Amino acid sequence: MIQVESVEKAYTSRKNTVRVLERVSLEVRPGEVCALLGRNGSGKTTTIRIICGLVLPDAGRVSINGYTLGEPEYMAQFGALIDTNRGLYPRLSPLENLQYTCMVRGMSRQAAVERAKHLLEELGLWDKRNAPTQTLSKGMLSKLAFANAIAHDPPFVLLDEPTLGLDIDAAEALEAQIRQMAQSGKGILLTTHQMEVAERLASRVAILSKGRIAVDRPKSELMAMFARQTYRVVLAEPLLEDILPMAHSLDETRTVLEVSLEHPRQIYELMDKLRPAPIKHIERLEADLGEIFKTLTKEPHHV
Amino acid sequence: MLSLVLIGFIFYLLVGFARAAGALDASGVQTAKLLVGYLLGLLAVGIISGPAMQVSREARSGTLENMVLSGQGLTAFFVVQVLARLWLSLLQFGLLFAVLGTIFGANFVFSWQLLPALFLFSLTSLGLGLMAGAVILLFKEVSQIFTLVQLLVFPAVIVELPQLQWFPLTLGAGVFRKLILGGSAAPLEWAILLLGTVVVYSLGVYLFQSADLLARKKGLLGHE
Ligand SMILES: Nc1ncnc2c1ncn2[C@@H]1O[C@H](COP(=O)(O)OP(=O)(O)OP(=O)(O)O)[C@@H](O)[C@H]1O
Ligand SMILES: [Mg+2]
C-alpha cells in the first residue's frame, strides 16, 4: 500500500513562497485505480514527485509496502511515468532504452532483452524497436515512456497524465492495460484532466484542492452522492400540453422529456401524470464526474 | 582514433609556434614539459567535464529522474561512470605519450610510480568534475562551466607558476612531471599530493550530494 501521511510542501525562492501541499494524506491499495484530480497547479505532479523521491517534502511521511524513502527496497515498489515526452535516451532505440532500464533495475541481460521485446510487442511499438528514439512520434514516445515506467513490473504504478497526446486507439489500449494491471493486483495512482478517463478507470477518486485532499472516496460512492434526480423519458407520442407540475424540459419533437425531481418518490407522481402518453423508455441520468469535479473545486477564477 | 590524431597534430602546431617564438630551448626538456602539461591537461579536462556533461545531458532528456527512480544514488552513479571509463582515458593517454614522446624525441622515463601519481591526479580531476556537476545540477549553465574549466585547467598543469602551486591539479601534475623526466618525488610531496587529492575528492562528493539534496528540495531535479 502507498501511504502518504500529512505531507506538506512549499516551494521557496528568494522572491516568494508557494504553498502547494498543506496537509495531504492519501492511500493507494493493491488492485485499485486511484484517480488524483485537481485543477492546474493544484499539486498533483508535486504529490507524485514526492512519492517518487524527486521532490523532498517539508513535513510528513511517505511509505510503500512499509518501506520509506531512503531504504533500497522502496524504489523497487513502484514505477512512475513522470513526463510522457521525456525520460528516454534520444539516440538509443526503444529496445535499447527498455533493455537499459531493465538492466539498471537488476535484471540479467537475457531477461532484460526478453522483457523489452515483450513490452514493445504489447504496446504496438515493435516496428519501431530499432529506430532512434528521437525519431518517434509524440504518441509513440508516450507509449514507450509508459513501457519504461513498468519495465521492472512493480507492484505500484504512478502515472502523471498518461493519456496525454494519445490517439483514440492508443488511449483505449492504454486504458485496457491499466485496467488489466489493476486486475492483476497492482495499485495505480494516476492524474488526468480527462474526466471521462477517470470515470472509466478509477475505482477511487481523490480531489486535490487548495493544498488538501478535498474528497477521497470510492468512485461509485461519489457518483451516487451526486447522482442527479434527473430522468429522461422518451414518449411514443408528442406531449401536446404541459401537464407536469415539476421542472422539466422538452425537445422540439416534444417526445423527449428531461425531468428533475426533488425526491425519488416523485417518480410515481411523474408516471401518473404521464399516463395518457405512452412511455417508450425511461432512464435515470448518470452523474458526470466532470460536473462533480467542477462543483467540488469551485473557486474564483483568476484570468 | 581521429581525435587522437587531431590531438597530436594540435600539439605539433603548438610546438611549432613555441619554437618560432623562441620559447623553447634546444635541449628538448621544455618541449617534453610542454607535452606532459598538454596531455595532463587533456586528461583532466576529459575527466572533469565527464560528470558535468552527463548531468546536463541526462537532465535535458529527463533520464536523470529515471536514474533516481531506478534507485541509484546520483553521486555513486557518476563516480562509477567516470571510473569505468578511466582505464580507456588512461590507455589513450599512454598511447599519446609513447607516440608524441618518440616523435618529439623526449627522454621519458617510465616507472611504476607514474601510475599512483596519475591515479591521484585523475581522482582530483574527478573531485573537480563533481563540483562542476553540482553547479550544473542547480544552475544548468553548461557552456560557461565548460569554458571556465578549460581556462583553469591548462595553465594549472602546463605552466609551473608559484602562484598556482596549491591549485589541486598542480600538485599531481608536478609529481608526474618530475617522475617522467627521470626525477623522483620526496615522501613529503607524495603526502601533500595524497592529502590534496583526498580533500578535493571529498569536497567534490560533498558538494555534489548537497546539490542533489537542494535540487530535490527546490523541485529542480531533472528539470531542463
Ligand atoms: N520547482 C518548482 N519551483 C517552484 N514552484 C513550483 C515548482 N514546481 C511546481 N511549482 C508550483 O507548484 C504548484 C503546483 O504545481 P504542480 O505541477 O504540482 O501542479 P499540477 O496539479 O500537477 O498542475 P497541472 O494540472 O497543470 O499539471 C504550481 O503553482 C507550480 O507553479
Ligand atoms: Mg501536473
UniProtKB/TrEMBL annotation, chain A:
Entry GO MF terms: ATP binding; ATP hydrolysis activity
Record-linked InterPro entries: AAA+_ATPase, ABC_transporter-like_ATP-bd, ABC_transporter-like_CS, ABC_transporter_ATP-binding, P-loop_NTPase
Top-rank taxon, per record: Bacteria
The keyword Nucleotide-binding belongs to this UniProt entry's keyword annotation: yes
Gene3D superfamilies: P-loop containing nucleotide triphosphate hydrolases
Xref: Pfam families: ABC_tran
SUPFAM superfamilies xrefs: P-loop containing nucleoside triphosphate hydrolases
Domain ABC transporter: from-to ranges: 2-235
Keyword Nucleotide-binding: yes
Keywords assigned: ATP-binding, Nucleotide-binding, Transport
Family: Belongs to the ABC transporter superfamily.
Name of the molecule in the record: ABC transporter ATP-binding protein NatA
Organism, as annotated: Meiothermus luteus
Recorded name of the encoding gene: natA_2
UniProtKB/TrEMBL annotation, chain B:
Keyword Membrane in annotation: yes
UniProt KW keywords: Membrane, Transmembrane, Transmembrane helix
Keyword Membrane: yes
TM annotation in the entry: 36-55, 67-84, 90-110, 117-139, 145-167, 188-208
The protein, known as: ABC-2 family transporter protein
Organism: Meiothermus luteus
